[in-house]
Each structure stands twice: as C-alpha cells, then as structure tokens.
Amino acid sequence: MFKINENYLKLPGSYLFFTIGKKVKEYSQAHPEKQIIRLGIGDVTQPLAPAIIEAMHGAVDEMGNAETFRGYAPDLGYEFLRNAISRNDYKARGCGISADEIFISDGAKCDSGNIQEIFSVDNRIAVCDPVYPVYVDTNVMAGRTGVYDGKTETWSDVIYMPCLAENDFLPELPKETPDLIYLCFPNNPTGSALKREQLQEWVDYANKVGAVIIYDAAYEAYISQEDVPHSIYECAGAKHCAIELHSFSKNAGFTGVRLGYTVIPKELECDGVTLHSLWARRHGTKYNGAPYIVQRAGEAVYSEAGKEQLKQQVAYYMKNARYILDGLREAGYTVSGGVNAPYIWLKAPKGMTSWEFFDYLLENANVVGTPGSGFGPSGETYFRLTAFGSYENTVEAVERIKAL
Ligand code: MLT
Asked: Global pTM?
C-alpha cells in the first residue's frame, strides 16, 4: 500500500492567495453588480514592453523556420541571456558574477521553493515574520519545520525574526543559530528595504556562523534610494555565503510569461562540495529549460530600448505607490513601504484584525488587499496593498478607502 508524504498534511489551510481568490469569487458571485478593485496579489497589469514583444515575435518566427528552429534549451539557460544578466545585473554594479554562475528558470517562486532540496533536512531555517509563505511552506513539505502550534501560528523548528514597526520592519540577527536564512529585500510583504551596510552585517554573520543566505531580490527594480543594494553580491564576502534569486515578473511584467534566474557562486561550498554543482545536477535532472521564445524576451529586457521602456513601467507603478501612501496617510492610516518596493504596508484601523479589515474593505469599498496575518503571526493587524494595479483603479481604490 502506498504512503503519502505526510508533511503535506501538516500545512495549515490553503495557500494564501488561493484563499483570498476564493473569498473574492464568493463575494463577487453574491454581488455581481459591484466593481471590485484587486490590489491583493502582486500581479502586474501593464502590457509587455514593445521591445519585449518585438523580441518574442522574432523568436516565434525563428521557431517556424527549419534553419532557426530550436528544441530543448540548454539545461542552465541560453548563453545570450546568461551573458546579458551577468553584464547588466552584476558586472555593471561591480559584482563579479559570471554567466556560468547563473541558472535560468521559469520564475523565482519555483526556485525559492525548490532551492531547499539541495540542503540537508536537518538544517534549521530562519525567516522574517511576516514572510512570503512559499519559503516556509516548501520547508514544511520537506519535513524541516517540526510541529505546528495553531495558537502561535509558528513551527517548532523554524527561527522567526519578527519585523515590526519598532525595528522598521527589518529583521534582527537571530539569537539561535540558523543554517539557512531567507531574506527578501526590498521586502515582500512590508515594502521595507535594507541599506548596504545593514545587508553587510547579515553577510558577515552568515560567514561567521556558517549559514547560507537565500536572498530573494525579486523587487530590486523598485529601489529608489542610493544606499539600498540591488544585489547581495554588492557586499564583501557574499559569494561565500549567498544564493540570489531573481524574477522577471515584477521588473518586466513576466508574471504570465514566466522567467527567472538563480545565482550560485562557485565559491559557495560545504566540505568541498559546491552548491553550484548540486543545483546544476538538480536542474539537469528535473528541468528542461525555459522556452527559447521566453529567453529571447528576457534578453530584450537588457536592450537599450527595453531598459528605457521598463524604467517607465516601474515609474508607472511607483506613481501608484506614492498615490496610495499619500492618500492613506491623509485618511489617517499608519503606512510604510512603497518607496523601494511596490508594496504598501498599513495598520488595520479601529483595532481590526487583518482578516476583519480584509472583509470590511471588500464589503464596504469593494477593494481587495492581502491580510498581513497571512504572511505570519507578526503580520496580524497589518494589511498589504500592491501598486501593480492600473493608475485609474489605484486612484479609485484610494478614494473609496478615504470615503469610508
Ligand atoms: C505576492 O503577491 O506576494 C506575489 O505576487 C506572489 C508571487 O510573486 O508569487
């Protein structure tokens, strides 16, 4: 008789954005006349930039011609894309990451969930609280998190680093020593950002205790302040302790196209075994590469026209962020984030819990956000709004909230 992976049974509830989607669908079916504005999941709304569309059309034509047709992509990604990433995202910033340390994938969500596979199940993970749920849930599935306490909504074997208003929503070095440290900056969900010298402290700490930092840089395109690093490899020593995850979803609108990459420097090793070799082995075994058309689209992100068009797209979303920040402040809300990230983090008013505020906003303003408690216990009483809506919808949503 077969047995299932019982770790899955330990997962409390369903995936956060699935629960939200279900609630919104129910409300919308009960009130079909209501115009619901969705500022919940961080999904983009602006079309792909013209330079990207042009590259995709070109690649589609190549696929329709016997001379230029491509089958399986190279396991680790096409050279043209890995070189463009190495040049633009790293060498241009003074980080010595070479093309063969970059692994192309179909997105940062998968990579952030899969990366734990190359580590021992005995490793102890540390996460920010609140946190992107994928990091914790995938470690639960792997059997690395111990026992769940429904009262505190925490796992016995996970080290939580509370990110609260008192510490500017930034984690402090943990008292217990972790083996794997998940950091996402600029942060999802709070929108907070670590300055370069603050990130350097984490790198020094990881090197001192022999931990690996899994650094999710999905939102780096939204950084507006000079002293906020775009990559962890801007910090000295990071190549010995850090893996970096990147997405094309937020900087280039690829949520439906799917493309991302992971950097594992060759220096990163454990008892003479490089993590690079393990991830290459995993990639080669379990993955056949992102589609050629999509990788050509990714290359166009780094063309001169692509860069210019995407700068404008990021500015468009950040104008939304500014509008939400200013509007909610004016309405008396306590708000943060939205300066180096497309997320605005606000305190639910009148002592409401996160889910109470979710229902209140859905029913009274027909606006959907994300309850902070869905990201972890320290998110309770907080709420996240995304700047990824259209400008018109963002303005309308803020006006509705102000009118409550
Ligand atoms: C979010 O809303 O937190 C993100 O869109 C989720 C993701 O990128 O997978």
From this structure: 0.97
Question: Is any ligand 1 atom within 6 A of the Cβ of residue 41?
Answer: yes
Tell me the CA–centroid distance for residue 309 and ligand 1, in Å.
23
Question: 179 CA to middle of ligand 1, Å?
Answer: 25
* Distances 31 to 37, 148, 362, 363 between C-alpha atoms, Å: 14, 37, 11, 10
CA distance linking residue 193 with residue 51, whole number of Å? 30
Q: How long, in residues, is the chain?
A: 404
Residue 110 CA, ligand 1 centroid: distance in Å: 12
Is there an atom of ligand 1 within 6 Å of 42 CB?
yes
Task: List the residue whose alpha carbon is closest to atom 6 of ligand 1.
Answer: 42
Of 366, 291, 310, 367, the residue nearest 59 (C-alpha): 291
The 10s digit of each residue's pLDDT in 304-363 is 999 999 999 999 999 999 999 999 999 999 999 999 999 999 999 999 999 999 999 999
CA distance 164 to 187: 13
